[in-house]
Amino acid sequence: MPRLPKDFFLPAELMPEIVPSPPARPKDAATVVLLRDGRAGVEVFLLRRVTTMAFAAGMSVFPGGRVDPRDSDVSVAWAGPAPAWWARRFGCSPELARAVVCAAVRETFEETGVLLAGTDADRVVADTARYAEQRAGLESRDRSLAEFLAEERLVLRADLLRPWANWVTPVVEPRRYDTRFLLAALPAGQRADWATSEADLGGWQRPSDALAAWEAGEIALLPPTWFVLAELAECDSVAAAFAAERTVDRIVPKIIREGAVLRLLMPGDPDYGDTPAVADPPSAGAASR
């Protein structure tokens, strides 16, 4: 796993004046790292969240969002690895695994117009423009993914996705998410956009260019996004990323205060095991608050 730069500090507002006690229970979520092969190597699609969002406002992120209860609908036509296969890789129940994959497909379509589905197990939709009304209905929650796919006689293509990571929001935050990250390649003939109420900008970038933009202060990244970009920067193609050997461990960072800034402690860091989940640095002698 890459190591965060020493100057990776977090917005001070991530540690509220009153930390929830007990900590908020994380809500299940799915994030899709959409990939394509560009002229200079693999590229990822990033969205900049609007500043009015309650979580991660102004951050550059991958498409994704919370698992909706209707994502658990077992009537969704499914092609590819079964929910039990996903459950083994994400360390959860098959029921949750199915819902996570469905949420990943739904959120990707809502936020980028990319649809990981086809008329059968061997085909993928090439032009999603004809589904604009259905896309709007999904975003407004007027229809579910199962309803949309059934109406259009489409099959969810789980085989177009790969498990990549599992990040859980630190306990200090009032809004917490247990997020599974999945890779997906842009299907031939489709185009990604940012025609969503949740983003004001989007586009394709090489992972290394996105990291350079973050280092220059041009974009803001949450730690999980930074880590995934750093990992993908080592892959020279979509095929290489999909072929990478991955063990999906559940990562729960800790946040500590260092003066006026916040810093992240990761599992494996020297102080991680000795530091309370909500703390000032150990050397300051502070207790959980």
Automatic annotation (TrEMBL):
SUPFAM superfamilies: Nudix (SSF55811). InterPro entries: NUDIX_hydrolase-like_dom_sf, NUDIX_hydrolase_dom, NUDT19. Its cofactor is Mn(2+); Mg(2+). The keyword Metal-binding applies. The keyword Transferase does not apply. Keywords: Hydrolase, Magnesium, Manganese, Metal-binding. GO terms for molecular function: hydrolase activity, acting on acid anhydrides, in phosphorus-containing anhydrides; metal ion binding. This is NUDIX domain protein. It comes from Actinoalloteichus hoggarensis.
